[in-house]
Amino acid sequence: MPDKTTSVVSYAAGASLAAAALFYVFGPTFTIDHDTTSSRKKTIVGLRNQANDCFINSVLQALAGLPELRIYLIRETHRRRIEDPSVYAHLVQPLDGKELAQWKLQGLQDGLVTYGLKEMLDALNERPISKKAISPFPFVKVLEMAFKQRISRQQQDAQEFLQIVAERLKDEYHAGQRARLYARRQGLASLAESSQAKDGNETDRSDDAAENADGMEASTSGTQIPITVDLAEVQRAVREIQAAPELEDGFPLEGKYESHIQCQTCGYTTKPREETFCTLTLAVPQVSSTTLNACFDGIFKTEYIDDFKCEMCRLVQTKTNLEQEMVKSTSDSFKALAQENIQKLQAAMDVDPERPPEDVELGDIRYAPKRRIAKTTRISTFPKILAIHLSRSIYGIGQITQKNSAKVSFPEQLPLGSVMKQRKYKLLGVVTHRGGHNSGHYEAFRRQNTPSPYANINPFQPSDIYSKTPTPISTPQISALRSDSPSISTPDLLSPSSDTTPSTPSLESNGAPPRSVPVDLPSSLVNGRDRDGETSSLRSITASTKSALSKLAPPRASLNGSSSPSTLAVGKPQPRPKKRKPADKWWRVSDEKVREAKTSEVLGMQKEVYLLFYELEPEE
C-alpha cells in the first residue's frame, strides 16, 4: 500500500500542473492587438540603454511608428530579393560627376542600412506578451559597417543620428534605382540590336525565298510561328527610359524645396534652384513662446534683401553705356565692335541673364548697380513623411553654446502649401529632450496606430513586382442581390423537391417584365397554398425566421406603396463606413520604460519638443 505522504505530494503536484494548464489554456498571457475587451496591460518593445544611447533609442522608436517608412522598407527589400543579383553587382556611378569609392558604392547598391533598419523596426513592432527590451547595437553595427567607422558617442545628438540614417537610406535608394535603370537600358539596348540584326537576316532570306517560290501556298496548320520583336517598339521604349527616370515610389522622407529671387527694380526672376531634404531644420526664435508656423516663416516667408547686385540690371547698365559711347564715338571700328557686343548682351538678356557673354567686358563688379530683391522659398515636392528638427542652439561669444528653452506649440494636424495646393499632415511621432545643451535625456512619443481594413480596389488586375493593392484583413463581404425574405437569406431551410419550379415569375411595378426569383422556391409557397403537411411545417419555420429577420431588416416599399419586409427587391448599397478618428493613445518610451500617454500630454511638451514626425494624409 503506498505511503500516505507520497500520495498527498503526488496529488498536490498533479493539481498544480492541472491549474497551470487551465491558466494557460483559458487565460493565456498573450493578447490580440487592439482587443479592447482584454484586461491585460499592453506594451511595446523597449530599447536598452547600454552606453548613453538614448539619442539612438528615441529616434528608432519614433521611426518604428511611421507606417509609410515600414511600407517602403518592405517594398525595397522585397524588390532587391526577387531581382537578379547581377543587377546590383554592376557598379553604376552617380550622374552628378562625384565618383564614389568602390566599397562605398557597392554597399549603397546592396542596401546594407535598408536591410538593417527593416529588421530593427520589425523587432520594435513586435507585440510582446510581457515587458521586453532589446539592444540597438545590431543596427549600430550595421551603420558602422556601412561607413567603415565607429559611431561617435560624444555628440549624442538625436538630430545628427537621424540625419545620418535618413541620408544613407536616400543614397541607397538612388543607388539601387540607378542600377535598375542601367540594367533595363542595357537589356532593351541589346534586345534592339539583336532585333535589328534579325530583321536584316530575315530581309536577306526573304529574297532567296521569293526566287525559289513555285506559286504554291504553304499550309500553316500545325506549324509554330516564331514571335518576333518590333524594332520600332523596342527603340521607343529605350528612348522613354533614357528620357524619364524609372517610375517608382520614392524614399518617403525625401522632399524638395525651391527658391528664386526677384529684383524689385527690373522685375527679373531667377530660375528656381531646387534642393532635396530629408529633415527640415527650423530655427526657434529667442522668445518665451512661439508656434511651429512662426518657425516655418523663418524659411518659407518672403525675405527682402537690400544692396543685392542683379545680373539683369548689370547687363542693362552695360548695354546702355555701350549705346552712349557708340553715339559719341567717331571710329567706325569701335561702332562695329560696340554694335556686336550690344547684340550679344541683348541675346543674353533674352535667353539667360545669369550667363553673360564671356567676350564682352562688363566692368568692375564693385560698380554694378545695387538693388532690392525678394527671396521666396517653397516646398515643391511634399514628402510622405515630414521630419522637422527644431534647432534650439544659441551660439554666444567665445564658442559658448546654450539651449533655447522657448515653448513651441505644434498642432496635431499640420497644413502646408498654398491655398490652391495645400497638403495636410498628421502627427505620428515626437522626440523630446530634457536638460541643458551639453547633457540631458531623450524620450520618444509614438502614436498607437490602429490598422483598419484596406479596400481591395482591383482584385482581378495583374500584380506588379510587389502588390500595390493591399490585401484586406478579413474576407470581403460581397453584396449582390439582397432580399429580406427568409427563403433567400436562409436557403438551407428550403431544399428543392419534386414539385418545385426552377424559376417563378414575380410581379413588378409600373408594368415591368417579370424577373425570375434568384433561388428555387416551392410553388406552394409562391402561390400561397400548402400542398402537404411538410410544407406547412416548413412554412412555420420560415415564418419564425422571417419574424426574427424583420426586426433587423429595414422596411421596404411593397407593390401597393406600403412597407413590407418580404418584398423581393435589390437592396440599396450599404453606406461607406465613417473615417476613423486618429487614435488618441500614444506610447511614451524612455529606453526600456514604456507607458501609455494621450494626445494632450504629447502636445503639452512644448519646452522639450526637439523632433517632429508628420505623415502626409491622402487627398480627398
What do you see in this structure?
This protein has 620 residues and is an alpha+beta fold. Among the domains are: 38-201 and 231-254, no CATH class; 275-302 and 376-451 and 580-620, Cysteine proteinases (Cathepsin B, Chain A, Alpha-Beta Complex); 314-368, no CATH class. Helices cover 38% and strands 18% of the residues. The protein is built from 16 helices and 20 strands. The protein has helices at 4-26, 54-64, 67-82, 86-89, 102-110, 112-124, 137-147, 158-211, 231-243, 292-300, 311-328, 332-351, 486-489, 523-527, 533-550, 599-603, and strands at 46-47, 133-134, 255-263, 273-277, 280-283, 289-291, 303-309, 370-381, 385-391, 393-395, 401-403, 407-409, 413-417, 422-435, 440-447, 505-506, 515-516, 585-590, 593-598, 609-616. The strands form 6 sheets. Strands 5, 9, 13, 14, 15, 18, 19 and 20 form an 8-stranded mixed β-sheet that branches. The protein has a 4-stranded antiparallel β-sheet with strand order 4-3-8-7. A two-stranded parallel ribbon has the order 1-2. It is globular and about 95 Å long. The chain starts with a helix and ends with a strand. 20% of the residues are buried. Residues 20-39, 213-229, 452-456, 463-467, 469-531 and 552-571 have low confidence and may be disordered. This is Ubiquitin carboxyl-terminal hydrolase. Residues 192-224, 436-585 are annotated as: Disordered.
